Amino acid sequence: MSTAPTIHLVDASMYVFRAYFASPAEFTDVDGAPVHAVHGFLGFLLGLLEQAQPSHVLVAFDESLTTSFRNRLYPAYKANREPPPLDLERQFAYCREAVAALGLAGLADSEYEADDLIGSALHHARAAGASGVIVSGDKDFGQLVGPHDRIWDAAKRERYGPEGVVERLGVEPRQVADLLGLTGDSVDNIPGVPGIGPKTAVALLQHFDTLDAALDRVEEIPYLRLRGAASVAAKLRTHRESALLSRQLARIATDAPVPADLDAYAVKPPDLAASEALLDRLRFGPMLRRRIRERVA
Which positions ≥6 away from 83 have C-beta within 8 Å? Predict the structure, then answer.
C-alpha cells in the first residue's frame, strides 16, 4: 500500500535572518562581501535534507516588506520594521541561487509573503493527497495545520501538530486568525483590539468559538466570568473594524500564484556544476562541497 507523500515547506527568510545574526561574519565572497548568512543557511538546509530525506520541498522567501497586498489594505502593516541591512540583501540573492543549485523549488513573490506561498502550496498538496511539514518557528502558521500536518521548528528541535497549536496558543488551528484579530501582532504592526491580550482573547474564543460570534453577541460579554468584562465589551464595540481588519491581515492566503502540481516540488539531484561555481564565488570550503556531492551519490 502506497503512503501519501509529505511536502516540507521551509520559511526561508526566518532561517536566513537567524544565520545572519547568529553566525560570526567571518566568511566573505570573491568580492570581499560578507556571506556568513549564506553559509549558515546552506548548512541548515543541507542538515534538513540529510535528516528528513524529503521527497518534496518548497523553500519560500519574502520578497519585500512594503509591496504585499496587505500593505494596500493597511499601509502601516510591518511599517515598524527596519529594512534589512544592505549586505543581507545580497546574501538573500545568494541563498535563492543556492536553493536552485540544490535541486529544490524556491519561490518569492512581490504581492504575497512566504507565509502565503507556503499556505497556497499546502492547499494544492492536500488536494493531491499529501500532508505538510512547515519548517518554521512562526506561531502564525498554526492556522494552516491540519490533522496530518506538522510544524517543525528545526532550530528549537520542536515538532507538533494541531494539539501542539492548542497547547501553545490556547485555540484550535481554525481559530488562530481570529485570535490574532483580537490581540493583534506587534511584530507585524497588526493593531488588533487595544487592551485585549491573549488570555482574554482565548477566553472569548472558547466561549463564542469565532470572532464574528463575539462581535455579533457583544451584549453577552458583560455577563461572562471574565475580568473587566464590561470594559472588554466596550473595546470590542469601539474597535470592531480594527478586529476584522486585523484578522484579514493575519490570515494566511491560500490562493497565491504557486504551482498546483505536486511534482513541481519534487526534490531533484543537485546541479553540481552550478553548486561548485556558486561555492567558488562564495569561497566556501570542502565540507559543504562534500555534503552536496554526497546528495548526488
Answer: 65
Beta pairing, strands 105-107 & 158-160: unpaired
Give me the amino acid identity at 201: A
Contact in structure between 177 and 184 (CB atoms under 8 Å): no
The 10s digit of each residue's pLDDT in 89-142 is 999 999 999 999 999 999 999 999 999 999 999 999 999 999 999 999 999 999
Q: What is the mean pLDDT of the chain?
A: 95
Hey, what amino acid is at 2? S
Residue 297 has pLDDT above 90, yes or no: no
Q: What is the pTM of this model?
A: 0.95
The pLDDT value recorded for residue 155 is 77
CA 260 to chain centre: 19
Q: Is 226 exposed, middle or buried (0-12, 13-18, 19+ CB in 10 A)?
A: middle
CA distance 33 to 237: 53
The Cα–Cα gap between 19 and 146 comes to: 29
Q: Give the contacts of 84 (CB within 8 A, at least 6 positions apart).
A: 17, 92
Q: In what order do the strands lie in the sheet with 105-107?
A: 105-107, 56-60, 6-11, 131-135, 150-153, 158-160
Percent of the chain with pLDDT over 70: 99
- Tell me if residue 135 falls in helix, strand or coil: strand
- Domains present along the chain, CATH in parentheses: 6-169+253-296 (3.40.50.1010), 173-250 (1.10.150.20)
Distance CA 223, CA 178 (A): 22
- Number of other CB atoms surrounding residue 146 within 10 Å: 14
The reported pLDDT for the residue numbered 6 is 97
